[in-house]
Every structure is written in structure tokens, then in C-alpha cells.
Amino acid sequence: MEDVIEISDSEREETSSTSEMEVDLQEVPDAEQIVPKDAATIAEEKKKLGNDQYKAQNYQNALKLYSDAISLCPDSAAYYGNRAACYMMLLNYNSALNDARHAIRLDPNFEKAYVRVAKCCLALGDIIGTEQAVKTVTELEPQSTALSTEQQSAQKLRQLETTIQSNYDGQAYRNVVYYLDSALKIAPACLRYRLLKAECLAYLGRCDEALDIAVGVMKLDSTSADAIYVRGLCLYYTDNLDKGILHFERALQLDPDHHKSKQMRNKCKQLKEMKENGNMLFKSGRYREAHVIYTDALKIDEHNKDINSKLLYNRALVNTRISALREAVADCNRVLELNAQYLKALLLRARCHNDLEKYEEAVADYETALQLEKTPEIKRLLRDAKFALKKSKRKDYYKILGIARNANEDEIKKAYRKKALVHHPDRHAGSSLEVRQDEEIKFKEVGEAYAILSDARKKARYDSGQDIEEQEQADFDPDQMFRSFFQFSGGRNSSFNFEY
Length: 500
Description:
- The chain is an all-alpha fold.
- It is built from 26 helices and no strands.
- The N and C termini lie far apart (186 Å).
């Protein structure tokens, strides 16, 4: 017979309470809601959400979710691999490379991580890093073709680097820029290529483009000695020598062995000193000494078009002071080859042309100058040059008689007497037909010259550049002029017998 267990009233109440408790638990639909999840589970959920955002091309959101997963499980190579892929889509190859390499440290057999290392190294212009990653992938999976494109690109990049260096050594900077553009298509994140391109652009005078590249790199790395050097180079090539020196010195502070900065700092200081010395000598009237200084300064850097154009202009000014007008024109020609908009050089060349009696060239220069800057002064200079050109097309009666423009009446008469006797047709009656014709023309010109310069009214009009009326010239008879002159000169020379 089984023992009967009696339940007391208090036990009965406890049982009733427990039964109600069991009913409440059964009403809960998901027990996981009150059971804490471990970090690995949450990390995996973050990764899955990150994958969804990555597929939707919301890379910033995906990056945050992958970072959350890594914080929860920092030993997961897959999470670092995923974040590396995300960084690559955001073109942040340095961060992507760091994550991919960390993934490899966590899992040395992680093939995808090596693939990402290769792609990042290639984008950054690291040929050796690319080749090493390709080799490892091949060792892990001999049949893999995942990096065949990268392998070919690395080989092409190596060839391009050889060509670039060869052209750089030969100072063929335009070619260097061309080949660097090809290299940057393969390695768009290579700062070394960007800065070398900027350096060559500065040498080619394209300083605005070079400066944009240098500033862009400095935003990524403010301590880049190469970027600061290129910025200094741009300042140097735009004749801002003082600021250029400061940049070269800053680059040397960051990298004391920066050879290019040392060279350019010295060149900058040398040019600045020589330019200042030349200007001081010019202002003090020591023109020949200034000429030597400017000539030596021009030898320092043939690529600095801005500074060289100013040195050439200064030397042209010196040449005008020492009456070397043709040399001054040659210097102005070189200035305008470097900078066709250099107005001062254009005006100086026009003045030299005018002084050299090359009036057509002077007019052409003043017309070009007027297109650059329409000022009353240039308009006046152009009018004067056109007037001088018009005068130059007339016969130079002073030159025909062989006298100065300030010759007096007696000097004009003496000159006519001498020239008329030299060129009179009777004196050359026994000469050849060609000689006789030539002397007749000269005899007539001598008479014309005397007819104009011996008449005060006509001489005044001629000197002022006015045209002599054609009718007056048509009525002129050189033989009658000759006879009249010698008749009124005393009568004793009314007829002549020339000796042959």
C-alpha cells in the first residue's frame, strides 16, 4: 500500500503559484529575446548587413557595419577582407591594403586577401608588392586566373617606368607627362607618379596644373617633402623667389637628404642675388657691368621662362643705353618668343625699330601693342610711327645732297653745286648708256632736292611731313635749275667744259 502524501495548505498555495508561472513562460513567443547574444553572433549579423549595403553600393554604410563587426570580433580575417573591399570601392587604397595585409596575418591562406593586396599595390604603383602577391596566389592556387590582368598591368607599368626615367634624364618633359598619364591609368593612386607629372608640368611652364596636383597631394599628406618641393618649384617658375626658397627649406626640414630641394634652393638664391645686383648696376648707370650680370643670370636656368623674359628685357634696356639697338631688338625678340603678351618688350622693340629707321616693323609692333592695351599713349606712338613710315617712303632730299637736316642756306647751296657738277650729263657723255641713264636720274634728284630745300615754304612743308604737290614736281626742269643756279652765282660759270 502506497503512502499517501498529504499536501499542506501552504504547499498547496506554492504549487498553485508555480503552475501560474509555467503558464506565463508558455505565453512568451521567442525565448531568444531575453537570452543575451554572444559577440560573434552580433558581429556576423553586422557583417551580413554590411554585405547588403555593399551590394546596394552604399559603401560608407557598409564600411561602418564592417568596422562594428571587427570591433566585436577583431580576430576575423573575413571581416578585414570585407572592409578592404569596401575601402577599395571608396578608392582608399592605403586603408584597403592595411586591412588586406592584416587579414593575411590572421589567415596566411586567405587567397582573396592576397588578391586585394595585389590590386591595391598596383593602384598605388607598387610593382614589387603586386608581383609578390601574384606569386603567393599562384602558390596557393596554381590554376587561379584571378590576377592575370594585374600581372600584365604590372609588367606594362615596369616598362613605362623605364621609358619615363629615360625621358626624364633627357629632359624630354613633355614625353614624361605623356607616359605618366598612361601609368596613372594603371596606378591612379600613385602619389609618386602624380608628383613627378607635376614637376614636369612646372618645367613646361604649366604651373597652375602642377600646383593643383601638389596641393591635392598635400591634402592627403601634409608632410610630403616631394609635394612641398613641387609647390616651391611652381613659385620659383612664376618669379616668386622668396616664397620658393621658403618651400625648399621646408622640404629639407622634412627630408634633409632631399637633393632636388637643395639644388633649387641654391639656384633660387643665386638668381635672386644676380637679378638684384643687375638692377642696382643699371640704376646707377653702370650699364656694361649690368649687361654682364644679366647675361650670366640667363645661363642659370633655361627653363625659367618668366624670370628669363625679365632678364632679357632688362638686358635689352641696357643695350639701348649703350647704343646697341640691334642687340636690343634681338633680346626683345627672345622675350616675345617666351611671352607674346610682354607689352614692355613689344614697345621697346618698336622704339628700337623706329630709331633704326625700320618704320614698317615699328608700325606693326605698335599695332600689336594697341591690341594688348588700348591707351592714349600707344595710340599716339602708333600715329607717330605711321607718320615716320610715310615720310620714309618719300625721297630723302637731305641724304641726296649729303647734308644734315639742320643745314643752313649756304650749306644747301654748296652741296647742290658739288652734287650737280658730279652728276651733270655732260660730264658722262662718253660713258656707257647704263651709266648715262643712272647719272641723269641722280642729276634730276639733286635738282629736286635743291628746289625743295632752297624754298623756305616747301622746305617747311617737307620737314613737317606734308606731301609736295605733284604739279610743282611735274613743272620742275633740272637743266633749267642748273643754268639758273650758275648764272646767279656770278655769271662766270654760265657754261662749263668737263674734263673726262
